[in-house]
Amino acid sequence: MKKNKIKKLSEGENFISDYLRSEKIKFDTQVRIYDLKNDTKKYRDADFYLPNLKVYIEFNGMWNVSKEDRERYRLKKKVYFTNNIPCIYLYPENLGIIDYCFSKRLVDVLKKDNLKKELFKYRFNRLKEDRGDLFFWVIATTLILIFSDYTFSENKSIFLFFISVLIYQISRLYNGYIKFFRNTNYYSFIKE
């Protein structure tokens, strides 16, 4: 695998790179893959590679242009499949719902290719981005409850306040766990 900077990114590829940056996902563009089995070419240029997740992304931006373009994309997809290359395929119509399409397809690819560590890392980062402040509140309220025990005997309303904050944050953590780790289609939940 080698980075290739020959061609300029298309508008759709720029959109995808902006999305990946906004999600804080590290990526390389135009990565060259050599020595693929059953391929007529010496190498293939993948549009994106996500090194921390070990997954490629192909944007089939010309899918709707011609039959020849579709056939070219199908051949590349077949070569990737034959060589067990984990890849997400995105199409122009996916750009309007990129968060859903990307996340769903990435989880599917990580599961299919048994990339458990990468799947956990991706899901945990989604949880952290979605509910990051809850970790602060759980830790802060727990420390306050542990180290300020003697002051609460005098004022039970403060104690009840911190207990309710802790219970609320733990429920947010549990709901986030269900949303990102247990539910295969976590977009069916209403975002908080």
Word description of this protein:
There is one protein chain. The protein is α+β, with helices and mostly antiparallel strands and 192 residues long. It folds into two domains: 2-114, Endonuclease, Chain A, CATH 3.40.960.10; 132-188, no CATH class. It contains seven helices and five strands; from the N terminus they run βαβββαβααααα. The chain has a five-stranded mixed β-sheet with strand order 1-2-3-4-5, covered by helices on one side. Strand 2 (28-34) and strand 3 form a beta hairpin. The longest helix is centred in the C-terminal third of the chain and has 27 residues, at 156-182. The protein is elongated and about 80 Å long. The two termini are 41 Å apart.
List keywords for this structure.
192 residues; alpha+beta; Endonuclease, Chain A; 2 domains; 7 helices; 14% strand; elongated; disordered C terminus
Q: What is the CATH topology descriptor of the largest domain? A: Endonuclease, Chain A
As residue ranges, the low-confidence spans are 186-192
CATH class of the largest domain: Alpha Beta
Query: Could you give me the name of the CATH homologous superfamily of the largest domain?
Result: VSR Endonuclease
Helices, by number, come to: 7
Helix percent band: 40-55%
Mind telling me which CATH architecture of the largest domain this is? Answer: 3-Layer(aba) Sandwich
Order of helices and strands: EHEEEHEHHHHH
Our estimate of the beta-strand percent is: 5-15%
Q: Briefly note the structural class of the backbone.
A: alpha+beta
What distance lies between the first and last C-alpha atoms, to the nearest angstrom? Answer: 41 Å
Q: List the strand order in the largest sheet.
A: 1-2-3-4-5
Number of domains: 2
The beta-strand count equals 5
Could you tell me the mean pLDDT? 86
In angstroms, what is the radius of gyration? Answer: 22 Å
Principal-axes geometry comes out as elongated
Q: Sheet with the most strands? A: 5 strands, mixed
